[in-house]
Amino acid sequence: MKRWPWLTSFYSRNLQKSGLSYGIPSKKKMAKLYSRLILVQEEELRGTQSVDPFNVAVIVNQKADLLDFTLRQLSKIEAIETVFLIVDEIDEYGTYTANNDQGYELIVKSAVDFSTNQDCEINNLLIINAGDSLHPYVQGALTKFIKSNHMIGYFDSDLIDLSGQRKSPKLHRDWDPDLLLSSGYINTGMWLRTNRVLSDKSCLSTKNTSIADFLVDAYLSDNRIDIGHIPLVVVHSLNKSENSKLPLSREVIDKISVYADVTEHPKFPVLKLLWRTEKQPLVSLIIPTKNAKELVKACIESILNKTVYNHYEILLVDNQSDDKESLEYFNELAKHPKIKVLKYDKKFNYSAINNFAVGHASGEIIGLINNDVEVIEPNWLSYMVGQVTRLEVGCVGAKLLYSDGRIQHAGVVMGYGGGAGHAHKYFPRDHSGYLNRLAATNSFSAVTAACLLVKKADYEAVGGLDEENLEVAFNDVDFCLKILGLNRRNVYCSEAELFHHESISRGFDDTQEKMLRFNSELAYLQNKWPEFIQNDPAYNPYLTLRRENFSIKEFG
After folding, report:
1. Given this model, what pLDDT does residue 510 score?
2. In 46-62, which positions are buried (b, 16+ CB within 10 angstroms) versus exposed (e)?
């Protein structure tokens, strides 16, 4: 192929597009996996069927041409009592109510009237879009919400064609306001226990209204709002291309802009949020090392020369270095006004080293940084500080890349390999990821400590890293899960991009001693956090745990 470079380029581009280079199954394989999943979920829905009636609201918006399809499909479900059409101009839809013979009552409402005029209470309400249809056994899924304590919830969805062929399931994670703000990920299949959940602060009120807009409004009104999720595909949307490049309406983006500077992603329907802070808190960046002069130099110089956010200190923790050149370099670094060099003269224990350094940190924000990390994006620290200073946010992790540009870390998923693994590992840097979760900032149960920010108060509140049981592996995962206990979320910040030359300085766990230690630490994690390993709320139970690629789970 050296004789035809254009052919090499063509092959490389299409290999990346296919997903084969980072483990995504072929379309044929995905179709087979989904066919099996459809049967598995149908069996579950059959087992939870009920006779409880329910109501449906259909948001028409710009999709009036798809409305007839939806109304015909809804007529096949006997339990539907009333269907509400949420429209811009009521007069245009009078013929629908006059000629209704579908077996349910049909009422046309404006978005504002439907949201604010609540003289009549409507219970067990499912909101979808024109062009959507419902699973024949949807009542089984609704029953799960009725039995829960939730007032608002959402389901998973997929695409369907006119022949009834289903594909491209959206297998969502549990409620995540960060993913909603950045990608508007919930756009159909919203359930309300009662229409009185709607209010003038969070209503369907604009011509471009959407379920995502409503939920953003609700979150901005109360950032502790708890929204349920049932991981069953019960809404099927006609396979129509979307024209909008924005995940939310301009009106709602303007509301977000009160709190954050919002810019559009150049390639995907994703918003980048730079959260504003009242002040610039001091960040203490802790970098443990033993020798490794060149790695440390590349790391620290990239921070000093590229980082826009300027209110930070660097704590370089020297763990028994014995290389002359490294020691001389560290002595020079100690003269820099932003750098302190600390001596930790005990055996390597990653958790203990960082706990020691936190005790010497002056900042109200702690940054755990590996010595083999290099800054790419100058605003990395600005974005991460903006996230970590939010009250409800705990740990903040970065998008970390291998030297060749592939993804090394973009959030941690519990359950991979029986313990934990990195989401979207080996994906290309500019890939959107599954349901935009690589391109969009969103929360995970954990993030890696190779580049992690956390409030010092939170670090101390959970006792720091576990230096007794997790000296090397999984200490960051355990730490993040402890932080969740403070009623925080751990956020993957997609805007913060850095290189991570993984394990260059410490090496891999490839000796018998290291493997025994790793297995012991894995067993500790499994015994301490079985609920997260068995069912990570930031993942979906119908996605695979065999690979880090968000493929559909294999059954049988």
Report:
1. 64
2. eeebeeeebbbbbbbbe
CB within 8 Å of 36: residues ≥ 6 apart? 554, 555, 556
469 exposure class (CB count in 10 Å sphere: 0-12, 13-18, 19+): middle
pLDDT band at 400 (very low <50, low <70, confident <90, very high): very high
Bridge partners of 413, per DSSP, are 421
What's the alpha-carbon Rg for the chain, to the nearest Å?
26
Q: Residue 101: its pLDDT value, please? A: 76
Q: How many CB atoms lie within 10 A of CB 75?
A: 15
- Which alpha helices (H) appear in 281-323, and where do they start and end? 293-306
CATH number of 283-534: 3.90.550.10
Token pair belonging to 50 = 């009920």
Query: 93 or 318, which is more confident?
Result: 318
Bigger pLDDT: 506 vs 223: 223
Note whether 490 and 458 are within 8 A (CB). no
Higher pLDDT, 199 or 498: 498
- Give phi and psi for 191, each to the nearest 5: -110, 135
Among residues 397, 393, 411, 412, the alpha carbon closest in space to that of 457 is found at 393
- What's the pTM? 0.93
Query: Strands (DSSP E) along 77-185, which ranges?
Result: 80-87, 105-110, 123-129, 132-134, 152-160, 166-170
Q: What is the pLDDT of residues 522-544, one digit of tens each?
A: 999 999 999 999 999 999 999 99
Place of tokens 């090499």: 8
CA dist 132 and 71 (Å) reads: 9
For residue 437, CA distances in Å to 118, 350, 408, 441 come to: 37, 29, 15, 7
CA distance 8 to 329: 43
Say if residues 210 and 248 touch (Cβ distance below 8 Å).
yes
Q: φ and ψ at 393, to 5 degrees? A: -100, 135
CA atoms within 13 A on the CB side of 75: 11
The span from the CA of 470 to the CA of 475, in Å, is 5
Q: Chain-centre distance of CA 456, in angstroms? A: 24
**Which DSSP letter does residue 552 get?**
B
Q: What share of the chain is helix, strand, coil (3-state, %, to 5)?
A: 35, 25, 40
Tens of pLDDT, residue by residue over 252-261, are: 999 999 999 9
Please say whether the beta carbons of 517 and 399 come within 8 A.
no
Q: Residue 405: name the closest of 430, 383, 382 by CA.
A: 430
- The pLDDT of residue 208 is 60
Q: What is the Cα–Cα distance from 486 to 471, expressed in whole angstroms?
A: 23
List where CATH 3.90.550.10 sits in the chain: 283-534
Q: What is 23-264's CATH topology?
A: Spore Coat Polysaccharide Biosynthesis Protein SpsA; Chain A (3.90.550)
Q: Under DSSP, is residue 47 helix (H, G, I), strand (E, B) or coil?
A: coil
Report the range of poorest mean pLDDT among 49-63, 314-328, 499-513: 499-513
